[in-house]
Structure formats: C-alpha cells, structure tokens
C-alpha cells in the first residue's frame, strides 16, 4: 500500500461502506500516535504555545481540505486545535480520513 500521505482523497458515493474496526486500526498504525479512533471518528488535538500558531495550523488544514475535497471538523482555541475526521456519506471512517490525517501529520512535522 502506498504511503498514506502520498495518496489523494477520492470522492465517496452515498452507500460507501465504512472501514471495519480492524482495518481502521491497521491504517491508524501509519499515523502519529496522537490520533485516536473514537467511535466513528479519527481525532487529534494539536497543542501550541499561542493562539496564532494554533490558528495557523487550522488555516493550513482548511486549505489542504479544500485541495483534497475532504473536510474535517476543526475547533480552534488558545494554544490548541482539535481535529475530527469522518466520512459522512459512509457513516464512519474510510481511507480518506486516514489519508487526510497523514497529510495533517506532515503539516505538523
């Protein structure tokens, strides 16, 4: 399987099946350990020393999301950005969520 960060998100059609728990956990091994699978979402909280840097990450993630056509839920606060990924059309996690997470990991360096 190609490195997740080098792949591109692909549009999902309604009815696309979500990944099973085992598949999701296997893909999760390719991500930073800060990512957690919570129910039907992939979640990470990135911490910063100030609001500016947190907002900067949120902006970079937003631009990446537009490029990939896969949009996470973002919550920005002082010194933190909470990122939650899921594929609504599948009702759970798909490859796209892990691809986006890997690309976000690259942004965080």
Count of helical regions: 3
Structural class: alpha+beta
Over all CA atoms, what is the radius of gyration? 13 Å
User: Can you list the strand order of the major beta sheet?
Assistant: 1-2-4-3
Oligomer: single chain
Largest sheet features? 4 strands, antiparallel
Task: Give the SSE layout.
Layout: H1 21-28, E1 36-38, E2 41-47, H2 51-68, E3 73-77, E4 80-85, H3 95-108
Antiparallel strand pairs: 1-2, 2-4, 3-4
Task: Please explain how this structure is put together.
It contains 3 helices and 4 strands, in the order αββαββα. The radius of gyration is 13 Å and the shape is globular. Helix 2 (51-68) packs antiparallel against helix 3. 37% of the residues lie in helices and 19% in strands. Strand 3 and strand 4 form a beta hairpin. The chain is α+β, with helices and mostly antiparallel strands and 109 residues long.
List keywords for this structure.
109 residues, alpha+beta, four-stranded antiparallel beta sheet, 3 helices, 37% helix, globular
Quick structural gist:
This protein has 109 residues and is α+β, with helices and mostly antiparallel strands. It has three helices and four strands, in the order H-E-E-H-E-E-H. The model has no long low-confidence stretch (mean pLDDT 95).
């Amino acid at each position: 399987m190609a490195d997740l960060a080098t792949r591109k998100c692909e549009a999902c059609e309604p009815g696309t099946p979500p990944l099973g728990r085992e598949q999701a956990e296997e893909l999760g091994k390719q991500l930073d350990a800060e990512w957690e699978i919570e129910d039907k979402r992939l979640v990470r909280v990135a911490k910063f020393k100030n609001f500016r840097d947190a907002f900067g990450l949120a902006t970079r993630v937003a631009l990446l999301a537009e490029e990939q056509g896969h949009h996470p839920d973002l919550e920005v606060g002082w010194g933190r950005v909470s990122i939650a990924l899921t594929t609504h059309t599948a009702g759970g996690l798909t490859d796209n969520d892990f691809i986006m997470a890997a690309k976000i990991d690259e942004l965080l360096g």
